[in-house]
Amino acid sequence: MAGLSFSNISKLFAGTPALNRINAEVAEGEFVALLGPSGCGKTTLLRLTAGFEVPDSGTITLGGQVLAGGGAFVAPEDRNIGIVFQSYALWPHKSVAGNVSYPLEVRRIPGPERKRRVAEALEITGLSAFADRAPAQLSGGQRQRVALARCLVADPRAVLLDEPLANLDLALRAAMQEAFAAFHRRTGATMLYVTHDQTEALALADRVAVMEGGRIRQFASPEALYDCPQDCFVAGFVGDGAVIALTATGTPVGGHILVQALGQQIEARCDSSVPTHICIRPEQVRIDPQGPIRARVSACTYQGGRFRLVLETDAETLVAHAPARARIGEEIRLSLHSPWAFHDPATPEILRVMQDA
Ligand SMILES: Nc1ncnc2c1ncn2[C@@H]1O[C@H](COP(=O)(O)OP(=O)(O)OP(=O)(O)O)[C@@H](O)[C@H]1O
What we know:
Structural class: alpha+beta
Protein name: ABC transporter ATP-binding protein
CATH architecture of the largest domain: 3-Layer(aba) Sandwich
Pfam family, one: TOBE_2
Keywords: ATP-binding, Nucleotide-binding, Transport
Number of domains: 2
Strand content: 25-35%
Number of helices: 8
Bound molecules: adenosine-5'-triphosphate
Number of strands: 22
Helix content: 10-25%
CATH class of the largest domain: Alpha Beta
Radius of gyration: 24 Å
Strand order of the largest sheet: 7-8-9-3-10-11
Largest sheet: 6 strands, mixed
Distance between the termini: 52 Å
InterPro entries: AAA+_ATPase, ABC_SmlMolc_Importer, ABC_transporter-like_ATP-bd, ABC_transporter-like_CS, Mo/tungstate-bd_C_term_dom, P-loop_NTPase, Transp-assoc_OB_typ2
CATH topology of the largest domain: Rossmann fold
GO molecular function: ATP binding
């Protein structure tokens, strides 16, 4: 396996940028998810890595070898990159073992070694008992595991996965997420995984590149994206909660700052001296009869073991979790605990400094 590097990658379609100066390093053996809304450029970045498209500028390297850029271009078939598509792309007339064996037959790998490698790939993907079945006799999840085994058998330098679970129902997706995680643990493969499902990205990846409008907005661990988003897009796109503009700020001390929002002074975590917004996750909103913030319940939905409340304050909407059902229209009081204050690059700095901070 090998690490992937993207340096200043841009790609235009009919003059419109699909990717705009992408810079990212994927370490050898790392599982990276590309997450973002439809049209943000995820698939384009994957296709450039596979060699199905050529970048207009910038360089892509794999294990130090330039795949594209600076006049060089390695053809897709010479990149030794495994690809798993949403649509499985299995041969219907071949058995499971026949499908998995095919890339080795093309490379003229001798029979005994082929058999050994196929058996190993089927074992890793939990398919040993299905070796003689036809793809039509398998479930969607099993077919996707055949595609994974077929990609693995060729001993690729990196594995690209394009929304591989999009065609599966919810229960199967959860089971397949575990299968992918186990596959990654056992193979140590460098993986680039495209999805627009944040639950999937946060559950599976070592790091997630959140994309929007052809750019990477933030590239960080799932925990960092959730706890410390770096702009309003990431704060709103990843996880639940509210993103609120600040009206004044104090001076940060030791990673904390006093800010003004919701008509209150709130103590927030921060790593910026000039935050413009706070991101308030549901766990940071406490229903508290002595709390300083008044709100009215506008929605209450059961989420298995807890209720999700949508709460309207005078000017903003917050989300909280509660152990018991709340009545729509009910008035409650809230306190906030360690929300995250950040500087949104697209927002002008707040000039007003808090009087008593
Ligand atoms: N071959 C093409 N010709 C013209 N425009 C294209 C082509 N491929 C992609 N685009 C455009 O480039 C942008 C990025 O597309 P891309 O498929 O990479 O997005 P995506 O994030 O993978 O979206 P989705 O989640 O819907 O698959 C889109 O605006 C899309 O319309």
